Amino acid sequence: MRGQSQALVNTPEIELWPGGLLHARGNRDARAIARARRVLRRKRDGRYLAADLPEGLLPLVPHLRREPGIDAALGALGREPARARPGIDVVPTLPLHRLQMRLDRLGVDPEGYAERTGLALVAEPAWLASAGFDRFQRPLWLHVDAARAWRDLRGAALRDGIVLDSISGYRSHDYQLGIFERKLARGQAVDEILAVNAAPGYSEHHSGLALDIGTPGEPPAEESFESTPAFDWLATHAGGHGFAMSYPRDNPHGIVYEPWHWRFSC
Ligand SMILES: [Zn+2]
């Protein structure tokens, strides 16, 4: 079905990307990825693991069979998720128990963190819809309902002479865990990292329902966004499209003011 092949299929440790969206450095990998129906990609560091070619699966790493999460990914390759009708069907989410285990190992106390911030664990959708490309020409993935709402929002803004672009949409738990692991390895303490980065699992970006919005010529994710005509337009019209600013000034979560971060509610 049109659109389904453009979905990002999500498993706990590996994403299944549609062919044609990814680029590889090596010649052999580049040729395989250009022809692939699906590319298996490790979530933590973005490494390409295998290409699903018409003639079969081509491993792009040694010891593919030993890759954590490979069974779940190969299982998902065999059965593409049923296409959800936007606004009607519920997109299933992945379980959270693995995340909780890994937070413990990182030294993040999930209960203390949740209590301190008032934030809840956010599950990842089992698949994400393509919402075009972000400002940096990276594929933008969102929950299917948010993807449709974002398209409508952008279109409505454009009719009023306002150009909106996206800085960042869906981000996985593993992506956020990877940031923590790299900073811990450089000798930072957990509390230091938590002052700058949301704990893995607690970002609204994990749901695919939130996105960071910008406008050309304005630096990404800066408070100065609030004095642009684009922000004025959003403040007036975004609510009518189902979007709300998650972190206004003095929000109860103790998160800094983020005039660029908007969340869609189904
Ligand atoms: Zn954000």
Question: What features would you highlight for this structure?
Answer:
19% strand; 266 residues; binds zinc ion; 30% helix; alpha+beta
Which small compounds were modeled alongside the protein? zinc ion
Question: What's the gyration radius in Å?
Answer: 19 Å
Strand order of the largest sheet: 5-4-3-2-1-6-7
What is the beta-strand fraction?
15-25%
Q: Tell me the number of helical segments per DSSP (H or I, 4 or more residues long).
A: 8
Q: Please count the beta strands (DSSP E, at least 2 residues each).
A: 11
Question: What is the share of helical residues?
Answer: 25-40%
Low-confidence segments, given as residue ranges, are none
Assembly type:
single chain
What coarse outline follows from CA principal-axis ratios? globular
> Which class do the helix and strand fractions yield?
alpha+beta
Main sheet characteristics: 7 strands, antiparallel
Order of helices and strands: EEHEEEHHHEEHEHHEHEE
- Output mean pLDDT: 91
How far is the first residue's CA from the last residue's CA?
A: 23 Å
List strands and helices in order, with pairings.
Blueprint: E1 8-10, E2 14-18, H1 27-35, E3 38-42, E4 48-53, E5 56-59, H2 70-78, H3 97-106, H4 110-117, E6 127-133, E7 139-142, H5 144-159, E8 165-168, H6 173-185, H7 190-194, E9 210-214, H8 229-237, E10 243-245, E11 261-264
Antiparallel strand pairs: 1-2, 1-6, 2-3, 3-4, 4-5, 6-7, 8-9, 9-11, 10-11
Helix pairs in contact: 3-6
This protein binds zinc ion (ZN).
Zinc ion is lined by residues 205, 210, 212, 261.
Q: Would you write up a description of this structure?
A:
The protein is α+β, with helices and mostly antiparallel strands and 266 residues long. The protein has eight helices and eleven strands. It has helices at 27-35, 70-78, 97-106, 110-117, 144-159, 173-185, 190-194, 229-237; strands spanning 8-10, 14-18, 38-42, 48-53, 56-59, 127-133, 139-142, 165-168, 210-214, 243-245, 261-264. It has a seven-stranded antiparallel β-sheet, with helices on both faces. A four-stranded antiparallel β-sheet has the order 8-9-11-10. Strand 4 and strand 5 (56-59) form a beta hairpin. Helix 3 runs parallel beside helix 6 (173-185). The protein starts with 7 loop residues before the first strand and ends with a strand. The model has no long low-confidence stretch (mean pLDDT 91). The structure holds zinc ion. The site of zinc ion has 4 residues, from strand 9.
